[in-house]
Specification:
CATH class of the largest domain: Mainly Alpha
Helix content: 55-70%
Number of helices: 24
Largest sheet: 5 strands, antiparallel
Distance between the termini: 80 Å
Subcellular location: Cell membrane
Structural class: mainly alpha
Organism: Sphingobacterium tenebrionis
Order of helices and strands: HHHHHHHHHHHHHHHHHHHHHHEEEHEEH
Number of domains: 2
Protein name: BCCT family transporter
Oligomer: single chain
Keywords: Cell membrane, Membrane, Transmembrane, Transmembrane helix, Transport
CATH architecture of the largest domain: Up-down Bundle
InterPro entries: BCCT_CS, BCCT_transptr
Length: 671
């Protein structure tokens, strides 16, 4: 008998099928009709950038301010995981991996190109060399600084928190749990994950496409290849994706960590080479001044919409707004990857590391390469580098021609870009598979490799057909709705953190303070019992009523007039001692109800209840302080509690400094 072999897969059809249909439809349309699709998408993108740019500005501003608030707030000590959990990776490996996933290829592509393009832009070119150079550095810092990492950090934080603290799947749907509750497992959750998967795929595909073009350009300049055509690009993609697939199938612990650690070491070595063999004193001074300039202009840059500067508006749309949209569109990918490697960190440690360390490194990197290029352009090349500002694919390698050991360093740059390519593709495969499987713990290797093959095939398909720019526009358009989703994530995170803090800081009930071991059986019966209205009526009559009447009589014996106030029904009873010059002393008990959640009602190991409600006696006070449940007090314990509050009252009114709080004008009863 022959047995048919079933192909094992952990893919979730509700997420994977709609995503693949949409991805393939967009890619095919972009490749078959690149001109038309690009035109339509550009119209939509330009409309958003021109008319809704304020959404991006405000959203990113809120992201930054919210993370800074969390870092310095009482929530900063909360761990991303159990309270006794510890990080899975060393600090250096953690920083290397999040950095490689977040900024890798982009840093190599724009480190010379962006400062040079700002420097040579007609908006800044009309000013002096000094102002042009300063502005070029300032806006490069702005685009690659805290704002970019705040976007990544916020998504990564929300994912880490809900996955490791709430034990939910490592998925974007989990970030909306406080609002959607169990509906995250249904269509709403699938819709969010489909959006995240498509956005991740588009972002990685376009970035890898640009990375291939830069690698090909570098190899051409070095004479390794004779042209920058599609065949060479296909060979590069085949080799690098094969390495990425091998890395991904070995697991993130091995592949990405090893490559990221290696690459960050090589990157630091390259930066030090340019620093010490370039205009060293100029670079150190410009970095120092640029950092101060960035800090001084931080809020002005953050809120600046250039609305009063018509000439700079196109630049604002094509740089700042485009960058915010680009980082937002990449945040599902980078956020998921950062969350995967951040278990066990505290919120404060997470935010400080994600916001500050990569930002400082980006500033150092951009200062060394960008300012070196500007200095060489004005002092050595006679404007040759600024003339190449519109050729970013080759600009890095043309810049290296002015430094010693040009070929060696150029090969090193190509190697770095290749490793960044591999780590981006590697982590991208992991993230996309995680989204498509609802964070399945185990997936077959062929399935993980399949995402890499799909990335490679569609990236080459679009490169050959000229549809990569259309896909980039599509990626930027998706950033608008996702920025709204991230804002909703903030609301969910605030709600969850507040509940979290109260849960772990919840103290024992006030009624447990006078307990001894004598009545423990009675206490147990009271704790597990859910009281009905009749139970509380009995408590109000037999315990609270008798206690207050007995205490009132004792007050009268001691020369103090004590009044008893109570409702017609036993819904409240209070003892009141009246004064002329100060507030009256009031201690009362009233009947209250509370609703229990559905899961509590269905729990077999808890007592049954009527209509999902429980009744309890709540103590309240004349000065509107927070009351508490007193149903576990005996009569004598309740009398002792009233006397405790009366002793506090007498101590307060006996001090002159409390006069403003004890005026008789504030006398009122709280029921």
């Amino acid at each position: 008998m022959s047995k048919s072999r079933k192909i094992n897969s952990s893919l979730n059809s509700g997420v994977t099928l709609p995503s693949l249909i949409f991805i393939l439809a967009v890619c095919l349309a972009s490749a078959i009709f690149p001109g038309r699709v690009s035109t339509v998408l550009d119209v939509v993108k330009n409309f958003i950038f021109v008319n809704l740019n304020w959404v991006y500005v405000w959203a990113v501003t809120v992201f930054v301010l919210f993370l800074l608030f969390l870092m310095f707030s009482k929530y900063g000590d909360i761990k991303l995981g159990r309270n006794d959990s510890s990080p899975d990776y060393s600090f250096f490996s953690w920083i290397s991996m999040l950095f490689a996933a977040g900024m890798g290829i982009g840093l190599m592509y724009f480190s010379v190109a962006e400062p040079m393009q700002h420097y040579s832009n007609e908006i800044f070119a009309n000013s002096s060399y000094v102002n042009s150079a300063k502005n070029a550095q300032l806006y490069t810092f702005f685009h690659w600084g805290i704002h970019a990492w705040a976007i990544y950090g916020l998504v990564g934080l929300a994912l880490s928190y809900f996955a490791y603290r709430y034990k939910l799947p490592l998925s974007l749907r989990s970030c909306l749990y406080p609002i959607l509750k169990d509906r995250i497992q249904g269509r709403w959750g699938n819709t969010i994950d489909v959006f995240a998967l498509c956005s991740t795929f588009f972002g990685i595909t376009t970035t890898l496409g640009f990375g291939v073009v830069q690698i090909n350009s570098g190899l051409h300049i070095l004479g390794i290849v004779h042209e920058t055509g599609f065949v060479n690009q296909a060979i590069i993609v085949f080799i690098l994706v094969s390495i990425a697939v091998f890395s991904a199938t070995t697991g993130v612990d091995k592949g990405v960590r090893i490559l990221s650690n290696l690459n960050i070491a090589v990157v630091i070595l390259l930066m030090l080479f340019v620093l010490f063999l370039g205009p060293t004193v100029y670079l150190i001074g410009s970095f120092t001044e640029g950092l101060g300039n960035y800090i001084n202009n931080f809020f002005n840059l953050t809120f600046n919409t250039h609305v009063y500067e018509d000439a700079s508006l196109p630049w604002f749309y094509n740089w700042t707004i485009l960058y915010w949209a680009w980082w937002i569109s990449w945040s599902p990918f980078v956020g998921l990857f950062i969350a995967k490697i951040s278990k066990g960190r505290t919120i404060r440690e997470f935010i400080a590391a994600v916001l500050i360390l990569p930002t400082i490194f980006n500033f150092m990197w951009m200062s060394v390469f960008g300012n070196s290029a500007i200095w060489l352009d004005s002092h050595v090349s006679g404007g040759a580098l600024s003339a190449l500002a519109n050729d970013p694919d080759a600009l890095m390698f043309r810049f290296l021609e002015y430094l010693p050991f040009t070929k060696v360093i150029s090969f090193m740059v190509i190697a770095i870009i290749m490793i960044f390519f591999v780590t981006s593709a590697d982590s991208g495969m992991f993230v996309m598979n995680s989204i498509a499987t609802k964070n399945a713990k185990v997936s077959p290797k062929w399935q993980i490799a399949g995402w890499g093959v799909l990335l490679a095939v569609l990236a080459l398909f679009l490169l050959n057909a000229g549809g990569l720019e259309a896909l980039q526009s599509m990626t930027l358009i998706t950033a608008l709705p996702f920025s709204i989703i991230i804002l909703v994530m903030i609301a969910c995170l605030v709600k969850a953190l507040s509940i979290d803090k109260k849960y772990y800081e919840q103290e024992f009930s006030v009624s447990t303070v006078p307990w001894s071991g004598k009545l423990w059986k009675d206490r147990l019966r009271q704790i597990v019992k859910v009281d009905s209205q009749n139970d509380i009526d009995s408590y109000m009559r037999d315990i609270a009523g008798n206690a207050i009447h007995e205490l009132s009589n004792e007050f009268i014996k001691n020369g103090i007039e004590a009044n008893i106030n109570q409702g017609k029904e036993p819904n409240f009873i209070e003892i009141e001692i009246r004064y002329d010059l100060v507030n009256n002393f009031i201690y009362g008990v009233r009947s209250e109800t509370k609703d229990f959640p559905e899961y509590f009602q269905k729990e077999e190991n808890l007592s049954d209840m009527e209509d999902g409600q429980a009744y309890f006696p709540l103590a309240y006070f004349g000065d509107a302080r927070q009351g508490y449940d007193v149903r576990l007090f005996t009569k004598d314990e309740l009398i002792a509690d009233i006397l405790k509050h009366y002793e506090r009252f007498v101590a307060i009114i006996s001090e002159d400094k409390n006069k403003m709080f004890i005026s008789s004008n504030a006398n009122r009863r709280i029921r």
